[in-house]
Backbone:
């Protein structure tokens, strides 16, 4: 007998997301399961510092407050809650939830998943957590849990683990699990799937986008949507953007299954409804990723405002005046942002920003003494001297690294509502079912002939390979890439990814032939010298680039102006190159069919 689709929603994409989203999702329409993603690389560092102060902490306190307001409502409506808010202390959060339920008089059963915490791991590690799959969640729900909290599971496991419980999937149902993982990846970042952070945001009212939900069928296909009457939009474009977010390569590796992103197909299925189908799954790797955070040292910064004429000379003067004070500092980074305009009509548009960032193992070398030296220049430096903030003390910064461990060595355990400890065995390999047929790779065409001078790709440059269906001699227009293409970017440790997609077949063919890995480094000079890998996802009309090492030691180290690479894709869209004029003048596809 086929079971009806699972209606599963999301109410959190990060620790600090919209507090009222849990109530919005519970009251907005029917749900079977409500998930919440609270963990990120930076969050683990924050929770690690919390645990140092108090061993009873280490979980997302916001989640507990949200359930204080909504636990009775969820119970009344029969909605199961599954969240990774347990962080470094899922057992502690489970106990706190039981106390809360008793206080509120709500008869709910609580279970948790543990085993991801591998501390002590290595010298200097603050946290070390393996990325577990969804099987522990499945076991907890099968045992009757109304609320399941976990530590570091993969974000998509909140959905795939729930779907495996709902449909009673076997561990080797790889295609079905892969479909649920893809749906989970779309949901995990909350309103990014409903028009938030969307390249073409001006097409919709996205002032308060609703949170997403998915209707997952027994065969692993799904429909992404949102509650009626909520803000934002769900279309093929918003779903494509989220599918490209923080992924690397065509194989999306996970603890339960490897999902083939190059097999994903999207189609409109009605207003604010997008169907996901065709997802093929392969066996998961026999290793698990481990995220490790450390305190990397101490950092500080000063931002000097340079107004009016002679901006470069003013910057050189400040650097020379602080040279002695900075001579013993381990890492010194100066960045001049030319935000000034010629003949400005406001003081702000007359000003540029000179940013000094210092890092050192010792807080003394980058503390108030150094920032005080900067302030001492106030009456003896460039004309118009001022800074954006008063001098401050050094702050610790974190470093994120990842490694792999054999999956069989990680004690994945579901602690059921009756306190029974249920060990989760490793996923069976080799596959029991027939493996999926891999998609043949498509060779990339040659790169641009030469780098430009900072104004975009060289004028007149285009991909060396002819674009099918177009005239190589056709007229071109110098325009920003974003006039035609969407993009979304994000971080994975010290690496960044940039997904770029087209809205029509003709634009996709041109994008595929033109935007090579070398072309990307031409357009984004800050990626020069770094390994850049390009992956094609033709069913999505998309390219996905991985830029290795651009974020240094990760977001917590504050290595870049944009430490999580969230705007890297928008920078790419702002770059100019020669685009065939007929593509720019073509009518866009109807909204429902746009990828």
Residues:
């Amino acid at each position: 007998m086929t079971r009806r689709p699972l209606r599963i929603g999301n109410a959190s994409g990060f620790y600090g997301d919209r507090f009222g989203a849990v109530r919005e999702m519970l009251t907005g329409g029917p749900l079977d399961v409500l998930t919440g993603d609270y963990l990120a690389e930076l969050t683990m560092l924050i929770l690690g510092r919390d645990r140092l102060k108090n061993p009873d902490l280490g979980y997302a306190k916001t989640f507990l407050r949200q359930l204080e307001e909504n636990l009775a409502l969820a119970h009344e409506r029969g909605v199961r809650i599954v969240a990774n808010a347990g962080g470094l202390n899922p057992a502690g959060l489970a106990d706190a939830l039981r106390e809360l339920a008793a206080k509120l008089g709500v008869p709910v059963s609580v279970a948790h998943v543990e085993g991801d915490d591998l501390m002590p791991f290595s010298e200097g590690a603050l946290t070390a957590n393996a990325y577990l799959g969804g099987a522990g969640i499945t076991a907890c729900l099968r045992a009757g849990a109304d609320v399941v909290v976990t530590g570091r599971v993969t974000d998509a496991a909140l959905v795939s683990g729930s779907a495996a419980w709902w449909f009673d999937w076997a561990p080797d149902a790889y295609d079905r699990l892969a479909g649920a993982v893809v749906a989970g990846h779309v949901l995990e970042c909350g309103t990014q799937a409903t028009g938030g952070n969307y390249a073409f945001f001006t097409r919709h009212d996205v002032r308060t986008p609703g949170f997403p939900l998915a209707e997952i069928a027994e065969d692993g296909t799904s429909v992404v949507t949102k509650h009626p009457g909520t803000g934002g939009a769900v279309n093929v474009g918003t779903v494509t953007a989220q599918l490209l977010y923080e992924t690397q390569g065509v194989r999306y590796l996970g603890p339960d299954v490897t999902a083939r992103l190059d097999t994903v197909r999207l189609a409109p299925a009605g207003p604010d409804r997008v169907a996901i189908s065709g997802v093929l799954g392969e066996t998961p790797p026999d290793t698990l990723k481990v995220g490790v955070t450390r305190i990397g040292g101490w950092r500080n910064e000063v931002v000097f405002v340079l107004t009016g004429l002679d901006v470069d000379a003013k910057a050189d003067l400040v650097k020379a005046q602080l040279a002695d004070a900075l001579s013993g500092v381990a890492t010194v980074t100066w960045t001049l942002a030319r935000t000034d305009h010629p003949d400005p009509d406001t003081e702000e548009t007359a000003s540029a920003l000179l940013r000094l960032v210092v890092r050192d193992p010792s807080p003394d070398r980058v503390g108030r003494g150094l920032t005080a030296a900067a302030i001492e220049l106030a009456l003896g430096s460039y004309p118009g001297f001022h800074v954006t903030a008063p001098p401050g003390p050094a702050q610790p910064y974190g470093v994120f690294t990842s490694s792999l461990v054999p999956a069989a060595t990680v004690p994945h355990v579901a602690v059921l509502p009756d306190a029974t400890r249920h060990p989760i065995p490793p996923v069976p390999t080799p596959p029991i079912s027939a493996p999926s047929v891999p998609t043949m790779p498509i060779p990339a065409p040659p790169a641009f002939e030469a780098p430009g001078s900072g104004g975009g790709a060289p004028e007149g440059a285009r991909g060396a390979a002819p674009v099918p269906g177009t005239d190589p001699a056709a007229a071109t227009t110098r325009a920003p890439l974003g006039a035609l293409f969407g993009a979304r970017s994000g971080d994975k440790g010290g690496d960044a990814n940039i997904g770029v997609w087209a809205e029509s077949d003709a634009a996709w063919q041109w994008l595929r032939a033109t935007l090579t890995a070398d072309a990307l480094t031409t357009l984004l000079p800050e990626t020069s010298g770094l390994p850049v890998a390009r992956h094609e996802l033709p069913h999505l009309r998309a390219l996905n680039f991985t830029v290795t090492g651009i974020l240094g030691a990760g977001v917590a180290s504050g290595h870049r102006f944009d430490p999580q690479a969230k705007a890297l894709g928008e920078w790419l869209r702002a770059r100019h190159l020669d685009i065939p004029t007929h593509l720019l003048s073509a009518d866009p596809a109807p909204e429902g069919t746009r990828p």
Summary: The longest strand covers residues 287-307. DSSP finds 15 helices and 26 strands in the chain.
